[in-house]
Design a protein that fits this description.
Blueprint (H helix, E strand, L loop, with lengths): L40 H4 L20 H4 L4 H7 L6 H16 L9 H21 L4 H24 L2 H10 L5
Helix pairs in contact: 4-5, 5-6
């Protein structure tokens, strides 16, 4: 009987590696680089509406703080939210939604915030359902989320808070 040998392939070298840094010293995701016209990429793309604390960086770093610490290009790529895990991205997105739709700082219980968070969860579960269409447990959970959001929207119409929510939804630059 022939002896089978196991070989290990190092796939790390075969993966495409993003460029270390742009001529300005920052990765493109942090606003570095140049467009075809020669202007900075950060200036050429439309700027989103100013949300009180937009976070594109991980580990609680504020915009500009990473450069002030003197982090190199490799570390700048590490703290960029593009390289974060899904749970970390979801947590940051939840904080952005709460900050935008809340009536005051730390407001997580107002109807607008609840509906916005439910809408985001519905979108995430619906995306999961597209990939896993036979997942009956997630389907049941999705129906529960939709019904809960429907009831809250009905309450908002009754109390007159729907106009504020629709106005905030138009100005939100996120995943809703």
């Amino acid at each position: 009987m022939p002896v089978l040998s196991r070989t290990f392939v190092d796939h790390a070298s075969s993966r495409p590696v993003p460029p270390a840094a742009s001529p300005g010293g920052l990765p493109k995701t942090l606003g570095g680089g140049r467009s075809e016209e020669g202007e900075s990429l950060a200036q050429s793309r439309p700027q989103p509406i100013d949300i009180p604390t937009p976070q594109r960086l991980r580990y609680g770093l504020k915009p500009g703080e990473a450069e002030a610490l003197g982090l190199g290009p490799a570390m700048l790529r590490q703290v960029d939210l593009v390289n974060a895990a899904n749970s970390e991205i979801t947590a940051v997105e939840r904080q952005r939604i709460i900050a935008h739709f809340g009536r005051r700082k730390g407001d997580t219980g107002s109807v607008e915030v609840q509906v916005a968070l439910l809408s985001a969860r519905i979108k995430w579960v619906a995306k999961h359902m597209k990939d896993h269409h036979k997942d009956e447990h997630s389907k049941r959970g999705l129906m529960g989320l939709v019904n809960q959001r429907r009831k809250l929207l009905k309450y908002m119409k009754r109390t007159g808070a729907e106009e504020r929510y629709l106005e905030l939804q138009q100005s939100f630059t996120g995943s809703l």
